[in-house]
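User: Teach me something about this protein's shape.
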Amino acid sequence: MAADHLSPRNRKAALADHLRAGILTLEYHPGSDLDEVAICERFGLSRTPVREVFRDLDGAGFVELRENKGARVAALSHTTLRDFFLVAPMIYSAILRMAAGNATAAQIKDLKAAQNAFTAALRQGSAAERALTNSRFHEITGEMSGSVYLIPSFQRLLIDHARIGMTFYQPKNQQMADNLAKASEHHDQIIAAIEAGDEDAAAALAEAHWALSRDEIGRFVLPAPLDLGLGDDIAGGGAS
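Assistant: First, the predicted structure itself:
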């Protein structure tokens, strides 16, 4: 990526955009080190602005800064994945409920544009384009909620949702392709519920939308399903 023609400020913004997209689409693998020297050379930046970008991305959950070890891409540990699968449906539901109650006309217009971009990516785009346009769709619903409490958590969830969902955007059989088409239908229904101000319908769609991808994603990243009753021994060492 040549950035020589850009101003230093624009090169810094280009780096931030590049890293966000690269992390979401697994161009930069979870837990991998970020080569500060190579990044400085590639974007024509000194170490100070590069480190500023790293700090911003650390605050947003894309990057982890380690003392005396530099920056690395946020890891996806077994614990992180289990937390994600347990917490995500609750936050998605709350976000869409609040979005239906708070969305502005301008935001709804943006959401429709994001859905158009997503459907275009489904027809002709790459898996990365599908992941990024889907993430933008949901990011807008977070903005619609207007919640100072939920938005930071939701934005962090979207990072991992895009990363662990990359398999969802590369269907390998008809069932996966059908699920992808259904996800797009859900987006249209979510827009309609938000536009109508129907909070209950929006929340119900969040749960249906989550369930659509949960099992497929879980097949790739979790050793066992999480649908356990409270008190069940996850480790399998409980009384039988």
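Now, about its shape. The longest strand covers residues 63-66. The beta strands are 63-66, 70-73. If you'd like, I can walk through any region in more detail.
User: That's plenty for now, thanks!
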